[in-house]
Amino acid sequence: MSDYILNNRYRLLAQVASGGMAVVYKAHDLTLNRVVALKILRENFAEDSGFRARFQSEAQAAANLAHPNIVTVYDYGQDGNRSYIVMEFVEGRDLKGVIRAESPLPMDRAIDLMAQACAALGYAHRAGLVHCDVKPQNLIVTPDGRLKVTDFGIARAISQSLPQNVETVWGTPHYFSPEQARGEPPTPASDVYSLGVVMYEMLSGRLPFDADDHESLAMQHVQDEPPPLTALNPAVPIQIEQIVNRVMAKDPAARYRTADQFGRALMDYRRMADQRTGYQAAVPINVGSDSTTAAVAARPIGTAAPAAPTGTDWLGWILGALAAIAVIGLIPLLFLVLRAYSAPPPVEAGALTPSPNPTAAGEATLPPFAEQVLIPKLIGLTQKDAEQLAGTTGLQLVIGPGRFDAQIPSGSVAAQDPPAGRRVPRNSPVEINLSQGPQISPMINVLNFTYEEVEAGLTPYGWDIHLVEEYSQEPYHKILKQEPPAGLPLAASQPLTLTVSGGTTVTLSVNLSDQITLDAANLPLDQIKRGLAIDLTLFWRGQGRITTPYTVFVHLIDANGQLRQQIDTEPGAGTAPTPSWTPGITVTDRYAMDVPADLPPGVYELRVGLYPTGQPLNRLPVADPGKATVNSDSILIRQITVLP
To answer: Which CATH fold would you assign to the domain 92-276?
Structure first.
């Protein structure tokens, strides 16, 4: 769908995600000239007018959320039968991918990510909005460690439209709260429970509950207790396990009521842990001035007190006097030892003077228990705000060389070293690099080269390059068009669209009912004379074992939508029926369609599809059109020009 423009404004560039409720595309906003994420809901949701109204209401509420840890909603609307929402495009990967690759996560990293999620959801809860579908797939982690929450309100809108279908309403049930599993309306405490499941998964590397079907999984959330977190990961402190257990309590009243409270509990634990691991001065025990009381306190319980001695103890007096003389004699020696150890080392001739800057002189000379501070995140702040925050934290700010950055406004912090989250001694330096905005360069002429010939030369400019394949008999990936044209200035990160030859093979990637994929079609000629045959090769792939025999239809449709020629047969002209397909293996399916000698010259559409054998009106539905144009479950291969 790379050529498709939604509502004459959003050009779809590439599909980046697909789920049961929607398909997400990377898109170019032609009006504001920026890259966005565009989520198009599945048509079965958008056909309901009541749902469209609820969806727009939820999208409007989400658009009012302005928080650094929430994906910004820019726009929402309707284009024909497509309901869509336009959001900030965030580079990174979802937390589910992070968990799969890195779990169990280190404690500091898990707390940092969860604290950001709590900050985002806490802000939404204060605004009266419940997410309803908190899961790691909806938590995006950027390369610099920032977490952003997405998909506010979509689950609620869908649940109100289709309350009978729990799986469709709430997505994956692994993160249900018990009240959601019972079909009750979600509350902020429901989001808190789901955050607890995510925290559990980050620290253990597994989900607290799992089952073969959704009903059993829902009952586990309602009735069962998860395996102890410390049993799965002994490195988890018992205090964190207690916090997670409270968050995942079955009764919402027993949990933290909002995500803000959950976040504060994590921060309180971190502060107490820092205090415990820092230097602790010895606490003197005050036993009073009465030596008899001290002696009694030191005696084991149940031991009888010794009898009080009578008379003068001359031996004790003599030994005490000798001990006093010995101690007095050691005082000069003790003074000399302390003086020797406290004196600075002699400086040899030519020796370098130690630098007052620890990072410039190498390893800093610090007292063993120097006060530590946590480096804050400065990226994105203006220089003034960064200086103020660093000063408040107790750090020295150093301005490094500027750098081009298309995402950070000019004059704001584009990079920092050391990074946020690290603990350093108070008054340590932190170097920042201020953004100089995007680098602007004149567009160069790349026409008639292949993309592979110019790819390395284009990379340093930082342009956001999008390839649009076009059917052509030119060499594969030869650049046919470029937008903008040569000579015009183009800033880094702005889109450069290159239309390249896709050869005679058309990439389609069409998903039919989650059973069969039409990967591509080869069409050697898109112009044909009357009386000759159109050669077409289709490349099918079964997604799993297929039990239904399907018939392929190949239709030639005129400009008025009338069927002018057709082929209906099992794949491979009957030699490769669908039940015989091996899952995942490509099936090559060739056709030769005769063009009638009396067919009027003009432009025709070549379309294909599938239907259960003997049921031509019951076409196999298209679940995802991929890169094709689909109408009534009929897939457009290419427009054909019929010559006289």
So the answer is: Transferase(Phosphotransferase); domain 1 (1.10.510)
